[in-house]
# Entry
Amino acid sequence: MAIISSYPILTPQLGDKLLGSNTVDSIGAPVEGNPTVQYTLSSVKTLVDQHYIEKLSASNASNFDPGNNNTGAIITFGAAQGTTVNDVMLDVAGKVTFNVTGSYNIQQIYYGQAAINNIPILNFKTVKDGSNQIGPTSTTRFKSNNSLERHRIEINSLIDVIAGSYYHFWVQNPTSGAAGQLSNQVTDAAWGTDVPCAQLIITKLQ
# Structure
């Protein structure tokens, strides 16, 4: 093979090809042997041009009380959304099913609330397919100076999903802390929309 510097320099066209190593497949699994393959510049452009597009936005307009116990509860996000023709669908019990394989960003936003002088603990986790926790547990502990206060917690996760997987989002208010819950907030004088106790936003890279 000639020295690379001896080859002419040209302006690339989308139909031109590059050599590369195939290290992962379309769902992110390692490829054995990392075979050498060709990539068209048009496919590289498509990959680089990807961005996140919203696939689901849901919120719970009511308060959500998991109970002051160590069991925890699956968070609900309002009415059911989507069907099997959609990338993502949600049922009224809080089950989120991914119908299309891909890379997703999951944004969870919650507002904790407790009676005055209570110091609750709220723990959050994500469970895949009914049994496997995905990512770390998130937690918040705060002292309520006023029952009208809301304590915001935001959890962001980037996940690679295989079609057919389903997820639940859990909250626990353990007995090691005082009673607390997720609570909505009505805006004064109907300024803007009311703030939900729990919001779920899912976007997909494409």
